[in-house]
Amino acid sequence: MTKTALITGASRGLGLALARSLAADGWRLILTARGADTLRPVADGLGALALPGDVADPVHRDRLAHAVRDHGGLDLLVNNASGLGAVPLPPLAGYPLDVFEDLFRANVLAPLALVQTFLPTLRERRGAVVNISSDAAVEAYEGWGGYGATKAALDQLSNVLAVEEPEVAVWWVDPGEMNTTMLADAVGPDDAAAAPGPETVVPTLRQLIEERPASGRVSHS
């Protein structure tokens, strides 16, 4: 039976790299990201369904739910889409609270909402959830308090979900530094260029998906 994956933030970076790998192995893909102009060519090239939009928007999440139903269910949910927050990275003492609230909506509420939406089909198909985390969730990096707090919250949601849903594999993955647009926005393009490409993380993700180890936090190294 052909397996189906929904990948958020799939137009670039790690989401795109994973989508390419899964497509090469015959997975049916539903891809979403905010930039339609970038997402559609990617999806067309992979034979995937493109549904551009913001996962923080409940109307868009409903569209994703309809698409999954039309595809007969879901085997893998990858919560990769993520916001960075205020840039330049501010100290917590001056962090704009409206930006902080929006960041939690994108990085914590949206992944949980998608999990809630797709748990019935993931339970039925003994599926899996991959939540992309960060070392900023567990380390104290100056300026990264807002982003790190959202990833710490996502880690704990994943941790509890793994206990509550034993039929569903749940992994929260710290990919380490990657040469992505987000990292370039945070530290500058020159420093970001020194980091490994996101494709280097894909073997770690594929190993989880194929071998299905126990749920837990995974650090790519």
From TrEMBL:
Highest taxon, organism lineage: Bacteria
Q: Which GO terms describe its molecular function?
A: oxidoreductase activity
Q: Which UniProt keywords apply?
A: Oxidoreductase
InterPro entries given for it? NAD(P)-bd_dom_sf, Sc_DH/Rdtase_CS, SDR_fam
Oxidoreductase as UniProt keyword: yes
Gene3D superfamilies per record: NAD(P)-binding Rossmann-like Domain
Oxidoreductase recorded as keyword:
yes
GO CC annotations on file: membrane
| One Pfam family here | adh_short
What the entry lists under PROSITE patterns is as follows:
ADH_SHORT (PS00061)
Q: Which PANTHER family match?
A: DEHYDROGENASE/REDUCTASE SDR FAMILY MEMBER 7B, DEHYDROGENASE_REDUCTASE SDR FAMILY MEMBER 7B
- Family, as annotated: Belongs to the short-chain dehydrogenases/reductases (SDR) family.
Name of the molecule in the record: NAD(P)-dependent dehydrogenase (Short-subunit alcohol dehydrogenase family)
Q: Which organism was this protein described from? A: Streptosporangium album
Q: What is the lineage of its organism?
A: Bacteria, Bacillati, Actinomycetota, Actinomycetes, Streptosporangiales
